[in-house]
Amino acid sequence: MSINIKSVKKLSACLCICFFIAVSNSFAQTSFQIIPGVKVGAINAQTSETDLKKIYGSKNVQSGEIGLGEGETVPGTIIYPNSPDKRLEIGWKDIKGKKFPDFVQFGGEKSLWKIAPGISIGTSLKTLEQINGKSFVLLGFEFDYSGTVVSWNGGKLARKFGNDGKFVTLRLMPVTYDKLSQKYMDSVIGDGEFSSKNKSMQKLNPKVYSVIVEFH
Fold it and tell me: What contacts 24+ positions apart, CB below 8 Å, involve 51-56?
């Protein structure tokens, strides 16, 4: 029995390509890494809803209304709608065509999505100060845009996220509510700006509850 070397080589090449595609698709579905201004997992500035269905599977992608705050919504797409730790909400620049992401957002109690060096849902104010290398400025609490970081004061995250939230916006809120924490809360309520070094902010040490990544 003779072996056709050319046929064997072609078969091997075909198997290698199929393996590479399978590995690439698997990586796309399990990669929860965010590079600000570049990509969120497999999502980049050119992605469409059709692409998302190919990458994450049609059953994991659905159309829906995306909340913007103060009761406003916009038609968008939700990835992993039934998995809170993997859920992503996407708003489109081309809303009708559902392509070209405008922003991607996620929140909740915990999330697999992370921005190097490990910033995600649950990251504390004090940890952000350490990563940033200095204090930053955020809004007060108990309104729709509660705890939004409005300036990184020229720190390390100003370069990574954009000092005015150009690429990434983080929102923080306290996670403990007792008589003592309420005392500190009373002094940092509303849409005024507060330093992360504010005594009440330090005592409350709020944690990230919402992340918004924008594409430009």
Answer: 52/77, 52/79, 52/90, 55/25, 55/28, 55/29, 56/28, 56/29, 56/80
Token couple for 130: 């350490």
Dihedral pair phi/psi, residue 48, rounded to 5°? -125, 170
Check whether residue 163 and residue 87 sit in a common domain: no
**Rounded mean pLDDT, 203-211:** 96
Q: Is residue 7 part of a domain?
A: no
Band of pLDDT at residue 24, cut at 50, 70 and 90? very low
Last residue of a domain, one of 58, 91, 107: 107
Residue 60: DSSP 8-state: G
Residue with tokens 């056709």: 4
Q: Which two tokens stand for residue 76?
A: 């968008």
Give the pLDDT confidence of 38-79 residue by residue, as tens digits: 999 999 999 999 999 999 999 999 999 999 987 899 999 999
- Residue 200 falls inside a structural domain: yes
Regarding whether 207 and 122 lie in a shared domain, the answer is yes
Q: Which of 107, 122, 141 is the last residue of a domain?
A: 107
